Amino acid sequence: MKHENLKVRTKAFALRIINLVDKLPNNLSCQVIGKQLLRCGTSVGANYRASCRARSQADFISKIGIVIEEADEALFWMELLVESGIIKEVLLQSLINEANELVAIFIASGKTAKENNKN
């Protein structure tokens, strides 16, 4: 997938996260989960953009690792929202699917970069 497509996709993911967090109930647990989800969900796109400007293959591998960690963390917080009963799974399924797809894409990209770095 081209870099520009992933830049658009990760920004759209961030915007969906923002909209989700803004609609969470106003209680302590949602405030804590919401802040964490907002931080990691929006940083996926920011860190992906940084990886596109990596100065070396090793720098790219490091930065894409951060993207993977942040996307996976977003998945964790969304799972908590569902499993705690705060949000019905059906309402988050599309966003969870997108997060899983992004994680898979970035894992594959990182593996390819590591293989290319060995050669």
Provide an overview of this structure.
The structure is a single chain. By secondary structure, the chain is an all-alpha fold. It has one domain: de novo design (two linked rop proteins). It is 86% helix and 0% strand. The protein starts with a helix and ends with a helix. It comes from Flectobacillus longus.
Provide the descriptors you would attach to this structure in a database record.
de novo design (two linked rop proteins); 119 residues; mainly alpha
Compose a concise summary of this entry.
With 119 residues, the protein is mostly helical.
Topology:
Blueprint (H helix, E strand, L loop, with lengths): L2 H20 L5 H25 L4 H27 L5 H30 L1
Helix pairs in contact: 1-2, 1-4, 2-3, 3-4
Tally of separate helices: 4
CATH C-level label:
Mainly Alpha
Strand content: under 5%
CATH superfamily: 23S rRNA-intervening sequence
Structural class: mainly alpha
Estimate nothing, just give the exact number of structural domains: 1
Poorly predicted runs of 5 or more residues: none
Order of helices and strands: HHHH
Average pLDDT confidence is: 96
Distance between the termini: 22 Å
Largest sheet composition: none
| Overall radius of gyration | 15 Å
